[in-house]
Amino acid sequence: MTLTVSSMRTPPALPGLGPQHFLSLPGARTVPVPALDAVTRAVEQTLTEQAVMCLYGDAGCGKTYALQTALASRPVLPGDVRICHLSPRPAPTPLVLRAELLLAAGLPIPPTRDPGVLDTALRTRLAAHPHLLVMDEASRLTTGCVEYLCYLFDDLTTQLTLILATSTKGFRMLRRQPLLVTRTTRWLQIHPLTPGEVRRAIPQLHPRWRDTGKDVLDRLDARHGHGNFRRWAQITHHTLRLERRASPPASALLETTLDGCLPPHEDPR
User: Fold this and answer.
1) Beta bridge partners of 189
2) What are all long-range contacts of 101-109, with beta carbons under 8 Å and residues at least 24 apart?
3) What are the residue boundaries of the ORC1/DEAH AAA+ ATPase domain, all occurrences included (predicted)?
């Protein structure tokens, strides 16, 4: 099942603190764009079904942030689910992945390289409690590692839910893994913000843009932002930095600074 996030009206900003924004941007808030609601519902369904889900989209569009927000908003996970968050190193071997999974599950690595011993330790832990494994940059996984995750998921004794997050390019790579494709029940794509969503969401993201005209937001987004939350965090960071030196900074200086940090019309994927 492939899900896409459609454009709809963005509701008011959520109160309170959320997961860490890019650059630890001070004053930034969680904005409940449609993608956040879609991710929250998909995570709940995937946990309930103890299934496999793939979340994909352009780099910086907010996949990891949405996942962290969705999980943080749940005061009690169903069945006392334990969350393991892992970002694998590039092209790990199955042996390396075993070790990283043991650490993510809170287990010491046994003093052996015997795969059977490592497998037994990991399977025993995954059988004792329900676990949610959130795998960032999932396209880094080799075919052998994907097969190993499927092996753990298929084990009748384990209680494992898998959420794999990747870029749009990485999604195409994962779709070439038949063992994974046939086990994945949700493919959720996160799109960049549309111009209309940018006008509603960015003033909620940070107070700096609260009273900014739509024409300014449109111009900045068309040249530098591209509806991408990470790029907008950088735009905000550099704007605030320049304002600490001179308020307001000359528009030419801001454009020159942003051109150097965020090349105009650069494809962020």
Assistant:
1) 4, 56
2) 101/133, 101/152, 104/133, 105/131, 106/82
3) 49-168
In the structure, what pLDDT confidence band is assigned to residue 28 with cuts at 50, 70 and 90? very high
154: number of Cβ within 10 Å: 11
CB atoms within 10 A of CB 76: 7
Helices (H) and strands (E) in the chain, counts: 11, 6
Token readout for 103 is 């650490």
Specify the long-range contacts of residues 119-128, CB closer than 8 Å, at least 24 apart.
122/98, 122/152, 123/152, 123/155, 123/157, 123/158, 126/152, 126/155, 126/157, 126/158, 126/159, 126/160, 127/155, 127/157, 127/158, 127/159
The DSSP-derived string for 57-88 is: ESTTSSHHHHHHHHHHT-SS-GGGPEEEEE-P
**Worst-scoring range by mean pLDDT, 9-23, 78-92, 150-164?**
9-23
- Sign, CA torsion 116/119/123/125: positive
pLDDT tens for each residue of 161-209: 999 999 999 999 999 999 999 999 999 999 999 999 999 999 999 999 9
**What angle in degrees, to the nearest 10, is found between the helix axes of 115-128 and 143-154?**
50
